[in-house]
């Protein structure tokens, strides 16, 4: 399986990451954990390009946030940069605390230059790997970091206790300014420029020019079990990942324990996280293995087809001796082809909830409301007297049920809470697309999308089934859809057009995977169920940032319940204003 590979530059410097997770102070009960996020510019060099990027506390990637299940987090974000900023705590449910969720103009107005805002939320009933990232324009390209929620004290993992825990966060590095890239793309209507490298913990690694010194290196001891906490924080690309000559045991996906299974390769979409166990070999002193990631691609557009690599290195008694390490062979993994949809399908099917008494899969068995949304690309007209660089001189667009979401200029949650929604949004997102067509057959002649700021309104505790159907307009494509405020169960998926009579017969209502981001298969559909037990306005969008920019997003409005503990709390006093 592994080929031999040597690269002299690899060993020239090599950055040794501090990999040990800091041990949290011993709190028997839930604690409040304070973090200061100072948003500032920092010059960072990668691939021999230095650029000034937006960072948290000057760090790239940003700092780790660590807490335990049940803790309250208080993160004061102070904006010292010219850009507007918001931060999202990806995967955290924000029960009744939607004001701390973060998507700009959905739950809050941005934190403007010179302002600060305290994100205040409690982590209820969740533990696992999450991440935080900016949720405005494309600023999350540099503003992101891991958010690790440990189980409550003295509650073990439902798998072997790892010797060490290591975050592995994928990102995308652009030599150019990403704000300029998306703004240029939205003006010309064409596809945005692609990234120059993928990164592991901010480092592109030895397969790029001028990058060998920026290589993530994981030094391990033999015969131990490591827990890799993996996050895909890349802007626009799903990624395959593999470590040469090692298999990985998946134990968790999107901070939900799963029935463990072994695999040589994982697939992780932007917005997804997964925990995997890596068992090191008994005796391999000084041996080195590459770990690599590159994209899984289904769309028609151009993309960054490069490969990020890091190094897994076994401790050696000779490590500090004069033995030149570069003489040792380096093993390289083989990743699936860039378009390996059958891998993607099989991998998705292997993910099952633990569904034990301690970690049950509370799949809604009855459904109050069925929804069917299409997701996909489309076009919008070019400004008069201009030529655009999208299909046939139009602009690229994207939509949910042919509605390309128009971002409001004030936050939806505030508009709802203060009863001033008129002129901000309309509560009439359609239950089904207005026009049926063969969604995965020949695309319709008219590819123009409609637009609007439409919300789907749900009474408290509605049990929802949503089928998301990819369309073939401008090419079928896998879309990683992310829902805020909830986890959902992935009860079914398939290719072609969803059949409401036949397909539900095969739904898994016993142990489906529970997650917050799911890949809608290219040219296919996925069915999810969730219980709308969290009042607020909850964004749902493709986690490929380019598609979000083009309008593949919408929002749910979950109304308050009758009981006092079923109501959205009032907004904090420092909530930013528009
Ligand atoms: C980044 O580099 C530029 C050019 O060298 C310099 O003017 C600027 O002060 C630096 N910024 C920071 C935050 O260090
Ligand atoms: C955080 O939110 C809780 C619940 O609303 C509130 O009681 C507490 O005072 C808030 N803390 C801060 C520092 O704002
Ligand atoms: C995008 O790429 C094109 C072609 O290489 C280049 O002309 C343009 O300046 C780039 N845009 C940005 C914002 O870097
Ligand atoms: C790396 O540099 C070499 C030599 O300058 C060049 O031929 C090659 O295209 C570069 N590769 C990449 C990926 O930039
Ligand atoms: C990546 O794309 C470039 C340009 O299209 C092509 O030359 C190269 O062979 C591709 N590399 C891989 C690994 O597919
Ligand atoms: C994947 O790409 C290969 C090489 O470009 C091509 O031969 C093959 O038909 C593609 N497979 C699919 C499923 O698109
Ligand atoms: C477009 O061009 C026509 C003819 O040249 C001109 O009359 C019209 O004002 C232009 N419209 C805009 C929006 O620039
Ligand atoms: C662009 O125009 C060509 C020729 O008129 C047509 O075949 C094609 O479907 C059009 N594409 C789109 C995306 O509208
Ligand atoms: C949709 O189009 C595909 C491809 O042309 C075709 O195989 C399929 O039968 C069509 N489905 C329906 C429901 O018309
Ligand atoms: C789409 O355009 C083609 C070619 O112009 C035409 O034959 C076909 O009837 C059109 N289809 C629809 C649904 O309008
Ligand atoms: C929404 O659609 C209308 C009608 O096509 C168009 O005039 C308007 O520019 C669109 N708005 C946005 C923000 O795209
Ligand atoms: C920042 O947000 C405010 C409030 O929405 C808006 O008025 C302003 O134009 C934004 N500034 C920038 C630089 O985007
Ligand atoms: Cu998408």
TrEMBL record:
Q: Which reaction does it catalyse?
A: 4 hydroquinone + O2 = 4 benzosemiquinone + 2 H2O
Cofactor(s) annotated in UniProt: Cu cation
A cellular component term, taken from the record's GO annotations? apoplast
Task: Please name the Pfam families in this protein's record.
Answer: Cu-oxidase, Cu-oxidase_2, Cu-oxidase_3
Signal peptide bounds: 1-30
Q: Where in the cell is it found?
A: Secreted, Extracellular space, Apoplast
| Protein's name in the database | Laccase
What's the name of its gene? LOC105161599
């Amino acid at each position: 399986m592994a080929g031999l590979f040597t690269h002299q530059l690899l060993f020239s410097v090599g950055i040794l990451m501090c990999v040990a997770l800091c041990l949290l102070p011993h709190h028997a009960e839930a604690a409040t954990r304070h973090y200061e996020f100072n948003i500032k510019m920092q010059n960072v060099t990668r691939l021999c390009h230095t650029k000034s990027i937006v960072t948290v506390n000057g760090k790239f990637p940003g700092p780790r946030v660590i807490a335990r299940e049940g803790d309250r987090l208080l993160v004061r974000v102070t904006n010292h940069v010219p850009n507007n900023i918001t931060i999202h705590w990806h995967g955290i449910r924000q029960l009744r605390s939607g004001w701390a969720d973060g998507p700009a103009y959905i739950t809050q107005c941005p934190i403007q230059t010179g302002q600060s805002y305290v994100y205040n939320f409690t982590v209820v009933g969740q533990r696992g790997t999450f991440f935080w990232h900016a949720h405005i324009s494309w600023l999350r390209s540099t503003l992101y970091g891991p958010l690790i929620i440990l189980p409550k004290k003295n509650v073990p993992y439902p798998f072997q206790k790892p010797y060490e825990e290591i975050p592995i966060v994928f990102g995308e590095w652009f030599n150019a300014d990403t704000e300029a890239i998306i703004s240029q793309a939205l003006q010309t209507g064409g596809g945005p420029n692609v990234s120059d490298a993928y990164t592991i913990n901010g480092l592109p690694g030895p397969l790029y020019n001028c990058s060998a010194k920026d290589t993530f290196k994981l030094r391990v001891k033999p015969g131990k079990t490591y827990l890799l906490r993996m996050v895909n924080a890349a802007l626009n690309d799903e990624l395959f990942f593999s470590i040469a000559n090692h298999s990985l045991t998946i134990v968790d996906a999107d901070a939900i324990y799963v029935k463990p299974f072994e695999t040589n390769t994982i697939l992780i979409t932007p917005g997804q996280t997964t925990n995997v166990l890596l068992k090191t070999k008994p005796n391999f002193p000084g041996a080195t293995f590459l770990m690599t990631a590159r994209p899984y691609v289904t769309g028609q557009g151009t993309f960054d087809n490069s490969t990020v690599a890091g190094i897994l290195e076994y401790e050696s008694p000779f490590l500090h001796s004069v033995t030149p390490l570069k003489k040792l062979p380096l093993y390289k993994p083989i990743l699936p082809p860039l378009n390996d949809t059958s891998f993607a399908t099989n991998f998705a099917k292997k993910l099952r909830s633990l569904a034990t008494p301690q970690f049950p899969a509370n799949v809604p068995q009855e459904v109050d409301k069925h929804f069917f949304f299409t997701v996909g690309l489309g076009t919008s007209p070019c400004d008069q007297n201009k030529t655009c660089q999208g299909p046939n001189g139009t602009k690229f667009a994207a939509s949910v049920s042919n509605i390309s979401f128009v971002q409001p200029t004030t936050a939806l949650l505030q508009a709802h809470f203060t009863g001033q929604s008129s002129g901000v949004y309309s509560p009439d997102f359609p239950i089904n697309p207005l026009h049926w067509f063969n969604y995965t057959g020949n695309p319709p002649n008219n590819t123009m999308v409609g637009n609007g700021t439409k919300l789907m309104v749900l009474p408290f505790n509605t049990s929802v089934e949503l089928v998301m159907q990819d369309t073939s307009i401008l090419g079928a494509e896998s879309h990683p859809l992310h829902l805020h405020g909830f986890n959902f169960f992935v009860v079914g998926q398939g290719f072609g057009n969803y059949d409401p009579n036949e397909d539900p017969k095969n739904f898994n209502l016993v142990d489906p995977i529970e997650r917050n981001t799911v890949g809608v298969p290219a040219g296919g559909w996925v069915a999810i169920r969730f219980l709308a037990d969290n009042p607020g306005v909850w964004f749902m969008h493709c986690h490929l940032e380019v598609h979000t920019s083009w309008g593949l997003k919408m929002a749910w409005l979950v109304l308050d319940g009758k009981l006092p503990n079923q109501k959205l709390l009032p907004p904090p006093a420092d909530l930013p204003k528009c």
